[in-house]
Amino acid sequence: MVKFAWYPAEDDHKHYKKSPKNKTAKLRKSIAPGTVLILLAGRFRGRRVVFLKQLPSGLLLVTGPYKVNGVPLKRVNQAYTLSTSTKVDIKGVDASKINDALFKKDAKAHKAGENKFFADSAKKSTTSEERKTAQKGVDAAILKNIKESKEPLLRKYLGSRFSLANNDKVHELHF
Q1: Which of 10, 58, 168, 173 is 20 to 30 A removed from 128 (C-alpha atoms)?
Q2: CB neighbours of 69 closer than 8 A, spacing ≥ 6?
């Protein structure tokens, strides 16, 4: 006599353990305030930036400084960065007032439609005054520290771009 296993006609609902929401990402050990990071994706890929702090959303707050390489205050996912051994002193930098709300865009600007597409006077998106003052305050302190640094080529290093050539062996590179 053959025994048959019994299977339900409909699949049972599986109760999966839900992960907690609003959990910030754990910061990599190689990233600390003042560490120079290389951006790997996006508009500023290949640029070297200075890490300031981790925001409540888990994203990293970085800046170029803007006068050195054109990278503004920016939020970046740490998965798209490469950390280097170079450090910049960030004493005097006040990034405590900078949070995720500073980077929010207008909800009205996202509405797309036929009228917006054919509009003659398309409204250009501009950077808020609050963001500009935050940029100036952060960059002034970092530029002062770069100038006082014992590394003579630190400003040029931050201004240069990172790229790989055909014969570069990535596993042998030290950043």
Answers
A1: 58
A2: 47, 48, 49, 158, 159
In this structure, is residue 122 part of a structural domain?
no
Question: Is residue 109 predicted with pLDDT exceeding 60?
Answer: no
In a domain, 148, yes or no: yes
**CB of 22 closer than 8 Å to CB of 75:** no
Residue 70: which domain range?
Answer: 29-97+131-157
Q: What pTM does this model have? A: 0.78
What CATH number should be reported for the domain holding residue 151? 2.30.30.30
- Total count of domains within the chain: 1
The answer on pLDDT for 159 being more than 70 is: yes
Taking the C-alpha atoms of residue 32 and residue 130, their distance in angstroms, rounded to an integer, is: 26
Single-letter residue type at 38:
I
CB 40 within 8 A of CB 49: no
In a domain, 89, yes or no: yes
Inter-residue contact 158 to 48 (CB < 8 Å):
yes
Mean pLDDT of the chain: 84
Degrees, nearest 5: CA angle 141-142-143: 95
